[in-house]
Amino acid sequence: MTRSMLMTACAAACFIINGGAQAQATTDANTTQTTPTGQTPGAAADLDTSDIVVTAQGRAQALADVPVAISAVNSESLALSGANDIRQLNQLAPSLLVSSTGSEANGSPRIRGIGTVGDNPGLESSVVVFIDGVYRSRSGIGLNELGEIDRIEVLRGPQGTLGGRNSSAGLISIVSKKPSFTFGGTAEATYGNYDFVRLAGSITGPISEKLAARLDGVYVKRDGFYYDRANDTTINDRDRYFVRGQLLFEPTTDFSVRLIGDYSKRDEKCCAAVYIDNSVNPFIGNLNNPATPFLQPGATPARTNDSGNNIINVLRDLGQDLNAFNRGFSRDVSVTRGRTFQGHTQDWGVSGQIDWRVGGVNVTSITAYRDYYNEQAGDVDYGSVDILYTADDGNARRQFRTFTQELRLQGSLFDDKLDWLIGGFYADEKFRGRSNLRFGTQYGRFATCRVVSGGAFSAFYDPASAGCLTATGLAALRGAAGADVANGFLTLDGLNDRGSTVDRYNQNSRSWALFTHNIIHLLPTVDLTLGVRYTNERKRFFATFGNDNTACTTLQSTLTDDLTSANATARALAAGLIGLGCQGNSTAELNGVSISDVRREDKFTGTAILSWKPIDDLLVYGSFSRGYKAGGFNFDRSALKAPIQLNAAGQPTTTFAALGGAQALVRNLQFDPETVNAFEIGAKYSTGPFSLSVAGFRQEFSSFQLNTFDGTVFLVQNINGCEAGLGAGDRDQSTFPSAPNYNAAAAATARCATDKVGYGVISQGFEAEASLVPVRDVRVSWGLTYASTKYRQNLVGNGNGDPLSPALRKLPGDNLSNAPELVVTGSAAWTPAIGDSGLSALFYVDTRVSSDYNTGSDLFPQKEQDGFAVVNARVGLRGRDERWSIELWAQNLLDQDYAQVAFNSPFQAGSNTPAFQDPQYPGGRQLMSMFLAEPRTYGITLRGRF
């Protein structure tokens, strides 16, 4: 979508959109509000001019009086939008983007273009999630059903003072509805396409004069959006339930105790992917075409056809349907027969919150224990050929057990001129993970055919023969490269259904913090807010590997000496065979090996805000804040070393033993903490039925934590900038000799002096949100975010100034992934009364319009997503006082196709050729896949309450 088209959409949206995101009426989670006699709740909301009450600064404050950029969404807005988890907040908060990829366990929220990339559980989120004041260790937990919600607050920018660590980009606070001392209940039944069934209900009321209870439950079942023909099943389905029970004890107005217990379970298949083709992204070019004819006409010596992709030939010859490479946004997926994406998730926890006002001081204590468990099988090559998989045997799993305790004291001094708050936070988390990633039953033949089909022996390509070579070809290979190399092809060919038996990753984390947040009333209309937090973090890591890949050790023992052979053919083929046979450090050498490490860090974060109210309805402010995201360990053995690595003497080595053993390399799994300095100016105007907030921001991120899949392994680097020029050394590569940015030593070039290392990512722009109740029963709202979220020029890979990985050479100067520069959201709701019957109608629409952005963390052009708009709509009939309603709804009404995340198809890369190289093909003949967003869904919902 061109910028002019997008701006036209923005202008149109101003007149029709974002109703609930900044709705005028709600109540604090700790208060109740009654509806005036004779009015429906919807009408009452339209007439109420009170602001939303939020607790973003640790106190109950009107939204318009808080000098922080916040999007607040109340329960009515959530119901109108159909939001059941944080992913659907995209429609209501323009600065927020939530996506999920290879696992529902790792949803990734981004605010102002900043978030955590990938499915590695060792990386914590840049956008922290709190539910009822309880810290959640990973933001993907918010992708579950949430039950009855009072409000959701989306705080933009670092929240390092009160939000603590891992809120370097922002914070999402979800507040559930609390028990009521008035008896009541709700019931909801929904049916939609894909056999979608959702049943929800709640009941609340007094047990005694001082004790109230509440029970919420949700059940959801739905067929998947993808069809797996090989196994006759659907993928990305829903089969889940959620239950939450609460007790509220209020013996006096100064003392209350709220106890919450919840449990949820999911048994679902997730997450399938499809190949990207020319109809989705024209930069694919000929990547998805087979080499036809297979050999280049007239070439001497013989070589693979330059114009096609030899990896397509290999996949086709091993059973992949060619149509799969050119299906566009079709949801027919390729899966190996017998493989599954089955997942199992359980999440439960208990918490207790005590609020006590004693001697003019408000004391709040929140104690919680959470247990989150997820298993996820997968056909993780995302194709029909059995290359790579994780089995559904309980050994592809992650579990977080987290205890947290927060204590806050808040009061005032000096005739209320100082509103002070002090507190402490403690967290103890135990992670227990297992991995059973294995090469598939066709991996050996696939790997040898990958080498043969694109190399000097392509004339002897034979996918039906051992080593993918004809008998003549095997003899020719033995003569050209030696017996060890020829036998190496046969060894690699036998590498089938081997790899991890069980790898165990364990981490014990302990974090504690002390903080203070103080509002100083300098003048009746001028406030100075000062906050500081000290955080101390310790992580103990230990892992034990199980692996039965003896092919790797055989290749290492027979071919390592060939890496220094005078025979160039032998050197090249030996390196290729070892690389494919030992990929990701899958080797029997690690079987039974354990490693351990510990890291400690501490950081000061904080905020300073100066705010002024020149008139009662207007607040202007300027702020500085510093945020922090903890460093940690990469739970991926592939980061320990490369399959071939130089030793101290500069000689190539292949084994762990040659480098001192796995324990000697454990430091390679660590990554540094991420920090941010943020500057913001803003204004909020709120009077009667109209409110407007605007903010301008600049955020500078140092040691930005980036997790990238390069088609073979995951790379974790801390991205920083260099104040000195690097002579384009951060943009070179050593893969394509004829490309203009070729440098044989690319991986070692472009170092930066340590004293010249600075921030590597900058996010700057402005935001505007407005809501209007022009007449009774009509609410309109609008939001706009312009965020230029970019990598700096001259990038390095850590705080020591070491070179950026050549796989990330597209990053310098470009926008981050999933960071559209311009987003417009909006909604309109009309709830007119139908005569004097007490009935009312409902008409609602919301939309999100996004500019172009790249969905791949390496920013390859094949992963670009064009701008698009998503529209939701709802119409209904409601009874007197909204005691009942019937609603017809549609999500993604226009059935907009788009990708959530694009990625390199695992191991599916053809050989190098000048026809496929930088700048259009930075991945060479690498195939690309994508996780699709949800298609159009529609249905009917019945609601009732008493």
SSE layout and pairings?
Layout: H1 3-16, H2 41-47, E1 53-54, E2 61-62, E3 70-74, H3 75-81, E4 96-99, E5 108-111, E6 114-115, E7 127-131, E8 134-136, E9 149-156, E10 170-176, E11 184-192, E12 196-206, E13 211-222, E14 226-228, E15 233-235, E16 238-252, E17 255-269, E18 274-275, H4 310-317, E19 332-333, E20 342-358, E21 361-376, E22 388-389, E23 397-413, E24 418-435, E25 438-439, H5 443-453, H6 471-481, H7 483-493, E26 503-523, E27 526-544, H8 550-559, H9 568-581, E28 594-615, E29 618-629, E30 632-633, E31 645-646, E32 652-653, E33 670-671, E34 674-687, E35 690-702, E36 704-709, E37 714-722, E38 757-759, E39 761-772, E40 778-791, E41 795-796, E42 822-830, E43 840-850, E44 853-854, E45 864-865, E46 868-878, E47 884-891, E48 899-909, E49 926-932, E50 937-945
Parallel strand pairs: 7-10, 14-19
Antiparallel strand pairs: 1-2, 3-9, 4-5, 5-6, 7-8, 9-10, 11-12, 11-50, 12-13, 13-16, 14-15, 16-17, 17-20, 18-49, 20-21, 21-23, 22-25, 23-24, 24-26, 26-27, 27-28, 28-29, 29-34, 30-33, 31-32, 34-35, 35-39, 36-37, 37-38, 37-41, 39-40, 40-42, 42-43, 43-46, 44-45, 46-47, 47-50, 48-49
Helix pairs in contact: 4-5, 5-7, 5-9, 6-7, 7-8, 7-9, 8-9
